[in-house]
Automatic annotation (TrEMBL):
Secretion signal, residue range per the UniProt entry: none
Gene3D superfamilies: Phosphatidic acid phosphatase type 2/haloperoxidase
UniProt organism field: Anaeramoeba ignava
Protein name: Phosphatidic acid phosphatase type 2/haloperoxidase domain-containing protein
Keyword Transmembrane recorded: yes
PANTHER family: AT30094P (PTHR14969:SF13), SPHINGOSINE-1-PHOSPHATE PHOSPHOHYDROLASE (PTHR14969)
Length: 325
């Protein structure tokens, strides 16, 4: 590397692999980054929940809704809420692990040829949060194949490869950090989709508590004003989405049946599948037959959750721009 040095060591899993000078690899990596960015993906799913009632219920009255349509709506909504929950790991659990492992990012580079080397990215990089996000998306596409099986699975593999390549070639993470992040993402996908849904609330609570504790224990985490790498800002972004999805998930099961919390996400997907004619466990039909367009849409609760999310995100903005810590 002509103008970058290793922050860690020269081991293949730790060395800086940033492309210098910038070439075609950097151009490709920056293009990938502009599309597969955790906060962008998170906001996309929030918008999906926002417009879902309009997409599915436009020009329909409560009397014209059959149970099949209701189940499709609930299936989609639960899918989006759970995906937001999994993506929260990128903002909260990943930051907690940063403060536990405290492994620096791999590259320090000089930008003006003045011999002054500055780190690429924030202070820590183990594990890679973007690789974790890519693994969550990729594993979902490979396992559930929501589009066409072969296309979904090819796309899932490509998401893995492209994002890991992007993080390494831009110098934000080492090979070891992206492999760790991707491996963690795969594990978290199966963890969050196989355990009972009530574990989601326990999971969220623990992330809120441990995030507040571990970041305060690290004396290196002191940031100035206008610092986009302020990890407290990142953590509060995660808190915002955790509160958002917790409110919606709480309302979802309050509206249908608390007993369903004992089922896993995978089991709930099967129970709400409108094309599954035989359900050996229980019938959702009796649970949702009374639901109207208004109660299904839950517009009031969505906007409460959304407003709280915005307030907490403003706190994240304050951390980043006013040097709060």
């Amino acid at each position: 590397m002509s103008n970058c040095i290793n922050q860690l060591n020269n081991n293949i899993f730790n060395r800086c692999m940033k492309e210098t000078p910038n070439g075609i690899g950097t151009i490709i990596a920056k293009t990938i980054y502009s599309f597969i960015y955790p906060e962008l993906i998170m906001n996309f799913f929030v918008i999906c929940i926002m417009i879902l009632p309009w997409l599915m219920f436009q020009k329909k009255s409560s009397f014209s809704l059959d149970n099949s349509l209701k189940r499709r709506f609930l299936l989609s909504k639960l899918n989006f809420i759970n995906f937001i929950h999994r993506l929260c790991y990128t903002f909260t659990l990943d930051i907690i692990l940063y403060s536990i492992f405290r492994q620096r990012r791999p590259c320090k580079c000089e930008s003006n040829g003045d011999g002054i080397y500055t780190p690429v990215g924030s202070i820590y990089g183990m594990p890679s949060g973007d690789s974790l996000t890519a693994a969550l998306i990729g594993t979902f596409l490979i396992e559930q194949a929501p589009i066409m099986p072969i296309i979904s699975r090819i796309l899932g593999v490509l998401v893995f490869i492209f994002v890991m390549f992007e993080r390494v070639i831009l110098g934000y993470h080492s090979l070891g950090q992206v492999i760790s992040g991707a491996s963690l993402g795969v594990a978290l996908h199966f963890y969050s989709t196989r355990l009972p849904q009530y574990v989601t609330f326990i999971d969220n609570f623990l992330q809120l508590v441990f995030g507040a504790i571990f970041l305060r224990l690290d004396p290196s985490l002191r940031f100035g004003k206008y610092d986009d790498n302020n990890l407290f800002g990142w953590l509060f972004d995660g808190y915002a989405f955790i509160i958002f999805e917790s409110i919606l998930l709480f309302r979802f099961y309050w509206k249908i049946d608390w007993k369903m919390l004992k089922f896993s996400y995978v089991k709930m997907m099967k129970n709400l599948d409108p094309f599954d004619k035989e359900n050996p466990n229980f019938s959702v039909k009796s649970k949702i037959s009374h639901l109207t367009v208004s109660s299904l849409s839950d517009t009031f609760y969505f906007w409460i959750a959304f407003f709280i999310c915005l307030v907490i995100q403003y706190l994240a903005y304050c951390f980043e721009n006013y040097g709060w810590d």
